[in-house]
Design goal:
This protein is an alpha+beta fold. It contains 6 helices and 8 strands, in the order ααααααββββββββ. About 20% of the residues are buried. It binds zinc ion (ZN).
Length: about 230
């Protein structure tokens, strides 16, 4: 309820903020002893004024008293100092958390700029691909995808493929190869696979064809998307 009143009430301007200590700063600490605390609003009210929880319009009526009562002035000064101290602590805590976020972001950026590890391996899984006939790509077949930064290929051949030497190339869809290599397929854990080093860094991204064949056989072609 108090908080709501504060939000709806007139805010304390910088001038209002200065006015209170200015009014209180004229050597009032001892000039108005008021030992019986006659007419004092009480510490709860002083606290609400010091922390700006009380709307200024409501606080106005107490200012004359606070400026003519040394005990209230002393209490108010202490409360106001405590409020400023807590507010500063909050600001410092927010600043510290911003620094942490900036630090973490900088750290992440630093490692991002260092880049990924040099050796990037891509697995091309052809095990469940239908074995295409000749050099043509089966229409409607989902393209394989690899990054141009890949430096190592691990190709899982279609199920039932024989072990032994294979030729592997990546060709432009119109025919000419941008990359050619030879590899020996071996059976391991029920998968016949070929491993090969590649360098596609100078190729442009786009659609290509991955072609694989045993020597002196027809190419088997699979659509390939180079990113
Ligand atoms: Zn008083």
């Amino acid at each position: 309820m108090q908080r709501e009143a504060s939000l709806n009430g007139k805010a304390y301007s910088d001038r209002d903020e200065r006015r209170i200590p200015d009014a209180l700063g004229r050597g009032l600490l001892k000039e108005f002893p008021n030992p019986d605390r006659t007419g004092c609003p009480g510490s709860a009210v002083l606290k609400r004024i010091a922390s700006h929880e009380m709307p200024l319009a409501e606080a106005e009526k107490w200012l004359d008293h606070v400026t003519s009562c040394s005990p209230c002035y002393r209490d108010f000064s202490e409360l106001q100092a405590g409020h400023r101290h807590r507010r500063m602590q909050t600001i410092l805590a927010i600043a510290a958390s911003i620094l942490i976020v900036v630090g973490v972001a900088g750290w992440a950026l630093f490692f991002k700029q260092k880049g990924p590890p040099v050796v990037q391996t891509a697995v091309l899984d052809l095990r469940n691909r239908s074995v295409p006939r000749g050099g043509e790509v089966n229409p409607g077949e989902q393209p394989l995808e690899i990054s141009r930064r890949v430096r190592h290929l691990n190709v899982y051949l279609p199920l039932g493929s024989a072990e032994g030497p294979y030729e592997l190339r990546i060709a432009i869809t119109t025919g000419s190869a941008i990359f050619t290599t030879n590899g020996v397929a071996s059976l391991k854990d029920g998968v016949t696979s070929i491993e090969a080093a590649v360098d596609l860094s100078s190729a442009s991204s786009g659609r290509y064809v991955l072609q694989i064949r045993k020597p002196d056989s027809e190419w088997n072609s699979y659509p390939l998307l180079l990113r």
